[in-house]
Every structure is written in structure tokens, then in C-alpha cells.
């Protein structure tokens, strides 16, 4: 089961197009990993201008705290990754004093100048992340065994994953290079880090997902797999499809769009599975009031491999994705969760 590998990693990025379900999936994965006994730190790159956090809202908060706090089940903590915190930590290391670093960075002019420079924002995120990954308990084990990051839009993900290599060209030696190499190992070593790409079964999100996979490969970021979110069961049987097809080709009938849309989703899924050898897991669309975290991660765990099904030559609309769908529907009927 490809998701199991995630439990062994130190650093997992959940990425993809905005609106595809990254925050929901990141939250689901974090709860799931914590329930399997990992000490999990769920983070997101904080929005310093709006402070808006859909991820925090999944845990009944307005924003995630700046320091780690327990979020949901035992073993799950959360915080917001702030570029500014990382920048202060980083400049403090270079200058050997945090007071001076804080004073310098509290000048708006200096901050504007630095943030305008390429990658200084990512550098802050990167260094904050590295500090969290380094943190140890008194017995020498990691404070946070798994750091899971709900990433912002695609471009920012590639800026972060490509950052160490870019900066190492400028600063190949010394303490900064050392920190960059250390952070790079959490991102590029498949034993330590991996990304999961969340997408939707539609044309543009699938195209963007394939581009993102290319970008991740370019920046040498290992990828655990792709999660296709919001899959809907086919409302038609094979017999109904065969009967309806000639009808919708001749006349515009009510419901034709639904028939065609489902076929389009099937084709898009096949385009994805034939373009990548990565595991592709499916997540069902669930009514919003039923979108509870643990049913989401259980559905993830049961997610059938669409790639496997495609290799067996199954028709896209017969993909064994109904298993998690059925399981989820049962739970929704029998419990209020
Ligand atoms: N499987 C799903 N079924 C139904 N609604 C979903 C599902 N996954 C996400 N959503 C909804 O879609 C919207 C966007 O999800 P979100 O996780 O915030 O996406 P992102 O972080 O990629 O922008 C939210 O309103 C969320 O509740
Ligand atoms: Mg989000």
C-alpha cells in the first residue's frame, strides 16, 4: 500500500492546484498518521497578509498557532510556517545573534528589500522547516517524527523544492551551504521526504498535475503518488450507457451532460495513469457536512489504485474506486461521526 511509505518519512509536502483539496487531504493524512502512532506536526505556509487559514478551520480554529500546539487526536500538533520566523532564525545563525537579526528584520524597508529579492521568502519557509525537522527530544529522537506541509500554490512548491540547489550555486561553502545541504536531504532523499500531488478528475487540473510532476522531478523531489480527489460514482450502468449514447448524440436531452461528463472524467483519469507510473489513489466526493477528517483518511487508506485498474484494461467508469465510496456511504448512513 503506497500510503504506508509516508509513515516512514520525516518531511511530506502536500501540493497541487488551489481548490483541489490539498488542505483537506493534508489534514486527513495528518490525522491518519497520528492515529498510527507517529508524532505528527501539521503545518502550512502562513499567509502573513490575510492570516486566512482554511486548514485551521478544519480543526475548529481561525489560524494555526506560531508554536506547536495539539490539534486533534493525541500525537498531532500543528503550527504555521512563517517566512519571517525562518528569516529571523536564519539571519540570527549567520550573525550569531537573534537580537540583531530581529532588529534588522523589523525595519520595513529592509524587509521589503529582502522579500523583493528572489527566494528570500522561500528561504524563510525553508529554514523554519529545517529548524522543526532538527528539533529533538531529550532522548535524541525527533520531536516531530513526521512534518506534513500543506503547500500553497504549485509555483511556491517548486520554488521551495528548487531552492537549495539554486542557492548552493551562489553559496557553495560555509555554514549557509551546510544548512542548505541538510535541508536538501530532507527534500531530496526518498527515505526522508516525499511529495503527494492532489488533483481533480478534470482536464485542467490533470494537465497542471502532470506539469507539477515534471517540475518536482526537475527539482529532484521524490513523489509518493497522486491523489485524485472528489471522484463521483458513475450514475449509469453499462446497459444504460449503451442505450443512452445514440440518444444523446442525436438530440439534446436533459442529463446528457452528466453522461458525457462522466466519460470525460474517465478519459482524464486514463490520461493521468498512462502518463505516470506513480501510485494514483482516489478519494470520493462526499457531501460537505459528512466531510469529517477521519472518514476522509480512512477512505484514503482504502483508496483503490487507479493505475492498477487501468493496466488491467478496466473501463474507466468501472474503476474499483467504488470500494471506498461504498464504505464511506455506509458510514455516513450508520453514524453521525
Ligand atoms: N472529497 C471532497 N468532497 C467534497 N468536498 C471536498 C472534498 N475535498 C475538498 N472538498 C471541498 O473543496 C474545497 C477546497 O478544498 P481545500 O482542501 O480547501 O482545497 P485546497 O487546499 O487545495 O485549496 C473545500 O470547500 C473543501 O471542503
Ligand atoms: Mg488550502
Estimate percent helicity: 40-55%
Stretches where pLDDT is under 50 for at least 5 consecutive residues are 304-337
Report the count of strand segments. 8
List SSEs in N-to-C order: EHEHEEHHHHEHHEHEHHEHHH
Radius of gyration using CA atoms only: 22 Å
Mean pLDDT: 79
How does the major sheet shape up? 8 strands, mixed
Name the strands of the widest sheet in spatial order. Answer: 3-4-2-5-1-6-7-8
CATH architecture type: 3-Layer(aba) Sandwich
CATH class, named: Alpha Beta
Overall geometry comes to elongated
Strand content: 5-15%
**SSE-based structural type:** alpha/beta
Q: How many domains make up the 3D coordinates?
A: 1
Tell me the name of the CATH homologous superfamily: P-loop containing nucleotide triphosphate hydrolases
CATH fold annotation:
Rossmann fold
Tally of contiguous helical segments: 14
Structural overview:
The protein has 337 residues and is an alpha/beta fold. The protein contains 14 helices and eight strands. The protein has a single domain, classed as Rossmann fold, CATH 3.40.50.300. It has an eight-stranded mixed sheet with strand order 3-4-2-5-1-6-7-8, sandwiched between helices. Helix 9 links the parallel strand 6 and strand 7. The longest helix is centred in the last third of the chain and has 20 residues. The two termini are 26 Å apart. The C terminus is likely disordered. It binds adenosine-5'-diphosphate and magnesium ion. Adenosine-5'-diphosphate binds next to helix 1 and strand 7.
Amino acid at each position: 500500500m503506497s500510503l504506508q511509505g509516508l509513515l516512514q518519512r520525516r518531511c511530506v509536502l502536500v501540493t497541487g492546484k488551489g481548490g483541489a483539496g490539498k488542505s483537506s487531504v493534508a489534514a486527513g493524512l495528518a490525522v491518519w498518521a497520528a492515529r498510527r502512532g507517529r508524532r505528527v506536526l501539521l503545518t502550512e505556509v502562513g499567509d502573513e497578509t490575510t492570516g486566512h487559514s482554511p486548514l485551521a478551520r478544519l480543526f475548529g480554529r481561525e489560524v494555526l498557532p506560531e508554536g506547536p500546539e495539539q490539534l486533534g487526536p493525541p500525537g498531532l500538533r500543528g503550527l504555521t510556517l512563517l517566512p519571517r520566523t525562518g528569516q529571523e532564525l536564519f539571519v540570527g545563525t549567520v550573525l550569531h545573534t537573534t537580537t540583531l537579526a530581529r532588529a534588522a528584520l523589523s525595519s520595513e524597508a529592509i524587509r521589503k528589500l529582502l522579500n523583493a529579492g528572489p527566494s528570500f521568502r522561500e528561504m524563510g519557509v525553508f529554514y523554519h522547516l529545517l529548524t522543526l525537522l532538527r528539533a529533538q527530544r531529550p532522548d535524541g529522537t525527533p520531536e516531530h517524527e513526521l512534518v506534513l506541509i500543506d503547500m500553497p500554490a504549485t509555483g511556491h512548491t517548486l520554488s521551495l523544492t528548487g531552492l537549495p540547489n539554486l542557492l548552493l550555486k551562489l553559496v557553495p561553502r560555509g555554514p549557509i551551504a551546510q544548512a542548505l545541504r541538510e535541508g536538501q536531504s530532507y527534500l531530496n532523499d526518498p527515505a526522508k521526504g516525499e511529495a503527494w500531488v492532489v488533483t481533480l478528475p478534470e482536464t485542467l487540473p490533470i494537465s497542471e498535475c502532470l506539469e507539477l510532476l515534471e517540475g518536482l522531478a526537475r527539482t529532484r523531489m521524490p513523489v509518493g503518488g497522486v491523489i485524485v480527489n472528489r471522484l463521483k460514482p458513475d450514475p449509469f450502468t453499462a446497459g444504460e450507457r449503451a442505450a443512452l449514447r445514440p440518444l444523446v448524440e442525436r438530440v439534446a436531452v436533459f442529463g446528457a451532460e452528466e453522461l458525457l461528463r462522466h466519460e470525460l472524467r474517465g478519459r482524464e483519469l486514463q490520461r493521468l495513469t498512462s502518463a505516470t507510473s506513480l501510485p494514483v489513489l482516489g478519494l470520493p466526493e462526499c457531501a460537505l457536512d459528512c466531510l469529517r477528517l477521519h472518514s476522509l483518511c480512512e477512505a484514503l487508506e482504502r483508496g483503490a489504485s487507479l493505475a492498477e485498474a487501468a493496466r488491467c484494461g478496466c473501463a474507466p467508469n468501472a474503476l474499483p474506486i467504488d470500494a471506498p465510496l461504498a464504505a464511506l456511504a455506509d458510514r455516513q448512513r450508520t453514524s453521525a461521526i
